[in-house]
Amino acid sequence: MSRESILKTKSFDFAVRNIKMNKYLTKEHRAFEISGQLLRSGTSVGALIREAEHAESRKDFVHKLNIGLKEANESIYWLELLFATNYITKKMFDSLQADLLELIKMLISSIKTIKRNLQKT
């Protein structure tokens, strides 16, 4: 399986977990605003990876992955806030953060590889 397809799968899986987290937060805590922020940024990561599949150029591909990277980083911020304000448990936080950190590392690696290949051509 290529790095991009692993990235696509992992970002989709995170989006599913993120949607389930949103359901939990809105039902159990009525935390509509903050859970909505996490929902938007967390699901954007996978959407941008999908967009990148049909990028107009390699530079456009890198640009979309960079935006996905920013969205993943923003998602960590919302998770940290949710944990700091006791909306989610340490176990929930650690698990979701681990998924995001893995996505971030994969995105950074993909971006660096593509940029390096662009410089060679």
Notes on the structure:
By secondary structure, the chain is mostly helical. It has one domain: de novo design (two linked rop proteins). It is 88% helix and 0% strand. α1 packs antiparallel against α4 and α2 runs antiparallel to α3 (58-84). The radius of gyration is 15 Å and the shape is elongated. The model has no long low-confidence stretch (mean pLDDT 95).
Helix/strand layout:
Blueprint: H1 3-29, H2 32-53, H3 58-84, H4 90-120
Helix pairs in contact: 1-2, 1-4, 2-3, 3-4
For this entry, give a set of tags.
mainly alpha; 121 residues; single chain; 4 helices; de novo design (two linked rop proteins)
Which CATH-level-2 architecture?
A: Up-down Bundle
Q: What is the number of beta strands?
A: 0
- Arithmetic mean pLDDT: 95
Number of domains: 1
The general outline is: elongated
Low-confidence stretches: none
Largest sheet: none
CATH topology: de novo design (two linked rop proteins)
How helix-rich are the residues, as a percent range? over 70%
How much strand?
Answer: under 5%
